[in-house]
Structure formats: C-alpha cells, structure tokens
Amino acid sequence: MEWLDIPEGHKHPIESVTESDTFWHGDEGYKRRYAAPFVDRGKDDRYVSEILSEFPDDSSLLVVGAGHSFHCNKFNECSNLSRITALDLYEEAGQGLDSDISFIQGDLMVDEIPTVDYIFSSHTVEHFTRDIIMNVVLPKCIYHAREAVVFVVPYGSIAWADEREHKVRLTENDELAAKAEKYKRLLPEGQELVLWFKGQGRGQQG
After folding, report:
1. 113, CA 20 to 30 Å: which among 93, 120, 174, 202?
2. Is 25 helix (H, G, I), strand (E, B) or coil?
3. Burial of 194 (0-12, 13-18, 19+ CB in 10 A)
4. Distance (Å, rounded) from C-alpha 165 to C-alpha 15?
5. What single string gives the DSSP state of each residue in 75-141?
6. Which long-range contacts does 132-137 make (Cβ < 8 Å, 24+ apart)?
7. Which range (56-65, 75-84, 157-166, 197-206) has the least confidence?
8. How is 40-69 classified by DSSP, letter by letter?
9. Which among 144, 27, 34 is positioned nearest to 97, based on CA atoms?
10. CA–CA gap between residue 119 and residue 144 (Å, rounded)
C-alpha cells in the first residue's frame, strides 16, 4: 500500500467512545493473553512489509505496548534493525523475547523511555483518551524518536465492535492525523489506519 498525504481541510476532534461502550479486560486478562501461546494470523508480516521495511538497516526501534513476545521476535527475525526495545505494562510481555531484545516493564504515561530512531505502536493508542493521546502520548513519543513515530490503530469503528475497551475512534480526518506527515490504510477493507509522524529525537539517547 502506498503512503498518502493527510487530507487537507478541516480536521474534526477525535471521536470519543461513549462510556457505556467502554470495557476494561483487567490486568489479569492481559497477563494471561501475553503468557499464552500465540496464534500467528499474519499481522506482523504485514507490519514488516508495509512499515518496518521503510526503516533503514541498523535503525533502533522502541515498540510501545509490545504485547505478546511473538510480535517483537517476528520484527527481530524479519528486519535488519540494529536494536529492538519492547515496552509494556506487564512483565509477561517480556517472557520469551529473543535474547537480543531489551525489555522495559513500564508505563508510557509516567516512566522514562529511551530515545531511538523509530517508535512503533500497534493497537495501543486507541486505549487512551483524547486528552492523553494529544497531550502526553504523541508528544512524548515524538520527543524520543529521532526519525519517526508510527501508530497503527483500528480505523474508525469498522469491524472492531468486540474491542469495547477502546476509548477513541480515529480516522485520517481528525486532529491526531493533522499532526502526521502521511498515512495509509491496511487490510483489504482498510480496517487499520497507519499514521506516520516526524520525530524530534530530543530525549536522552538510548
């Protein structure tokens, strides 16, 4: 899929999911998910071919909201990145990682993160509220990425009704996209939105 320019014109506020639609799986649910065997449905191959392949060889990468160790291991196997660091709230996300992948158990909201060439986050940003995304998550990631920040999120409300813990719905026509340089939509029906933001790389070098 080709990268597209962010559409010109008015950008609407990020759409919040109403409180009645919001559900939290709970810490134990995520811990069990990350510790269990992983079923590969090809998502990571898609990310490698459509996104990580754009990163120059020997780049460093921080994966925010890394989830199951399978994901970072796949990135490690299929790319020429020099160093991968995985960040997640739960220590279970670090179990089974390749030995050359660094793991940080931490909270993006409050903990320090290293400055790297690229920051990548898949299906994590939509779990934050609008104010946290715009005032904390995006600025912090941009500050610590020398080259770029890439967010992959569900597109709008398409086919994601089972993910009731999401706090927002995102498109290429909202205020978050207005901060991005380019975007693309993945999967046959465009169910995933990919936003590419220019990094500043001003944080402590990692």
Report:
1. 174
2. coil
3. buried
4. 14
5. HHHHS--SEEEEEESSGGGGTT--TTEEEEE--TTTS---BEEEEEEES-GGGS-HHHIIIIIHHHH
6. 133/14, 133/168, 133/176, 134/14, 134/175, 134/176, 136/108, 136/109, 137/108, 137/109
7. 157-166
8. --SHHHHHHHHTGGGSPTT-EEEEET--SH
9. 34
10. 8
The answer to whether 58 touches 147, Cβ cutoff 8 Å, is: no
- Which two tokens mark 85? 């660091």
Spatial distance between the Cα atoms of 75 and 91, rounded to a whole number of angstroms: 19
pLDDT, one tens digit per residue, over 6-57 is 999 999 999 998 764 444 557 888 899 899 999 898 899 999 999 999 999 9
Element (H, E) at 15: strand 15-16
Q: What domains can be seen in the chain, in order of their start residue? A: 4-37+46-198 (3.40.50.150)
Q: Which tokens is 25 given?
A: 């799986």
Specify the length of the chain in residues: 206
Tokens linked to 64:
């925010």
In the β-sheet with 60-64, what is the strand arrangement from edge to edge? 4-5, 182-186, 192-198, 145-154, 116-122, 60-64, 83-88, 101-105
